[in-house]
């Protein structure tokens, strides 16, 4: 497998070296950079599969760097933020990055984020589109956006339909929250963002009300959701 | 009353000064008049001379009369004469003698003298028995108003000047004294004395400057409180960090290769704890400093509670968790990102204090324009005197130590501030059936 190139822009030398170590051990090729201006130059001239960008940088801060970069390039970016992270978490700000990690962060958490983002940024191998799925009395029709439970129509919103469709169409497979956010809500997963979970709770409720087993949409804590 | 100071200055400066100058002008006039009369002794002297003259005239001794006049003239260095009217009818009717009486050669001694005339007037003293009058140019020594110039300067310059100087000084003091006190207070405040207050130093004034002082006091008290709470937070945080850092240090120092997994786990546990502590403290500081009001979206509280309860059931599978809600509870102008961690903290807290096998009940009830969420646990409850303190950062009831290492007394403080940011309120009371009941009131719109 081709090694994945990561550009790391972080001004703290120690943290930069630690992260390089961590990423190299996990099989990535890391290009290190310690300030905003040379970081932007590198990002514009070389193609990387992923950029790890610190928000506070000397010479050019991360947010401005990302703004300039986005004019020409759509490389996936994970923003690492320290200052104002509390506010950003509660208000759900990501500054236009594809993902967002707040300092202090856990190395495992960072690796998972990187993997998830890389997976999402791969060109999707489009699964053959089914038009209708029917399982144990539950029928989903994508063309009509209609859901029938035991031949009775149950009303769902577009988002709820998409969510249920994603889960039901991949039975017994754990789908991560980040993926579901991207596919269903077309947005990035924020740290305190629970909107997807709330939609899922509502879908469960509606299925239960229609006398179908909503619990079959299972929460796999720390990973995502799975239809069994 | 608004614009106290304007009214005060209107009263003093406009009304007061007009009245003052009016009185001054009246006083000047009266004084001038009073000083315009010939002194009584001089008048008697003049009358005596007239009497002597009349007597000499009546005696017919013209020589003696002329001699007396010459002596008098020399003595008083003035002009003296004796004259009478002789009416010469030129044409028409004879005129009445009485009418003639109205005409005079000079001024009556009882009349006032115009002080602004430089020449002394001629005084006329009519004879009582004979026809004729004693006429004398008022001798200089008898001219009244000797001190008039001085008096005039005093009345028209020195007196108003003195009064105006007193008035200016008083006005200056009236304005500058509080400003000076404010300046002193500001400089004391900037030196770190946050207890300094100005309003009470100004007595019972109630004007613009008093309002300024009150505003300053309010600012001082708010900033003082803020700084005190920040200091408290920093000192608490550094105190709270000592324990996990010590544990971390020990774990690192006792690291043994052959048992590395267990040691690493311990180290990682401490690091997670420290991370959470710092994260929560910073969030708390942000919420405390900015006091944000977050209004971004509609939230269905039922869905939100479902999510929180689902997570909590997983984490505390050995306690019973009961949720009683209607099917929908949609609120607007809120934020699930603020509500969710708050509810998580409160429900986790309830579960943590509930013994294994016991239950926590969460109820969602609609009340007028609010939704109320009641979280009732079956734990030990909290002594009444601590009930309002549990929302303070780093506050711990003694027995909460038993609840495990994960709690550092920030959960409820954070929850309260998060709830405030979506205009919701929180309170706690002991449930009649034992255990603690936390009550959250969230506005629907």
Biggest sheet record of chain B: 5 strands, mixed
Kindly, what is the distance between the CA atoms of the first and last residues of chain B, rounded to a whole number of angstroms? 37 Å
Low-confidence stretches of chain B: 401-405
**Got a strand count of chain A?**
12
Write out the strand line-up for the largest beta sheet of chain A, numbering strands in chain order.
2-1-3-4-5
CATH homologous superfamily name of the largest domain in chain B?
Histidine kinase-like ATPase, C-terminal domain
Q: What is the averaged pLDDT score of chain B?
A: 87
Strand order of the largest sheet of chain B: 5-7-8-10-9
Indicate the CATH class of the largest domain in chain A: Alpha Beta
Tell me about the biggest sheet of chain A? 5 strands, parallel
CATH H-level homologous superfamily name of the largest domain in chain A: Response regulator
Which band does the percent of strand residues of chain A land in?
Answer: 15-25%
Taken together, the total number of domains of chain B comes to 3
Q: Tally of extended strands of chain B? A: 10
In round numbers, the mean pLDDT of chain A is 86
As an assembly, this protein is: heterodimer
Q: Mind explaining what this structure looks like?
A:
The model of chain A has no long low-confidence stretch (mean pLDDT 86). Helix content of chain A is 39%, strand content 22%. In chain A, strand 1, helix 1 (13-25) and strand 2 (28-33) form a beta-alpha-beta unit. Chain A has helices spanning 13-25, 36-45, 62-70, 85-91, 107-121, 158-169, 177-185, 195-209; strands at 4-9, 28-33, 50-54, 77-81, 99-102, 132-135, 138-141, 146-149, 152-154, 175-176, 217-220, 224-227. In chain A, the strands form 3 sheets. In chain A, strands 2-1-3-4-5 form a 5-stranded parallel beta sheet. Chain A has a 4-stranded antiparallel beta sheet with strand order 6-7-8-9, covered by helices on one side. A 3-stranded antiparallel beta sheet of chain A has the order 10-12-11. In chain A, helix 2 packs parallel to helix 3 (62-70) and helix 6 crosses helix 8. Chain A is built from 8 helices and 12 strands. Chain A has 228 residues and is α/β, with parallel strands linked by helices. Chain A is elongated. Chain A folds into 2 domains: 4-121, 3-Layer(aba) Sandwich (Rossmann fold); 132-227, Winged helix-like DNA-binding domain superfamily/Winged helix DNA-binding domain (Arc Repressor Mutant, subunit A). With 445 residues, chain B is an alpha+beta fold. Chain B has 3 domains: 40-85 and 96-146, 2-Layer Sandwich (Beta-Lactamase), CATH 3.30.450.170; 214-290, Signal transduction histidine kinase, dimerisation/phosphotransfer (DHp) domain (Helix Hairpins); 294-443, Heat Shock Protein 90. Chain B contains 10 helices and 10 strands. Chain B has a 5-stranded mixed beta sheet with strand order 5-7-8-10-9, covered by helices on one side. A 3-stranded antiparallel beta sheet of chain B has the order 1-3-2. In chain B, helix 1 packs antiparallel against helix 5 (148-190) and helix 2 packs antiparallel against helix 3. The longest helix of chain B has 46 residues, at 208-253. The model of chain B is unreliable at 401-405 (pLDDT under 50). Chains A and B meet through helix 4 and helix 8 of A and helix 7, helix 8 and helix 9 of B.
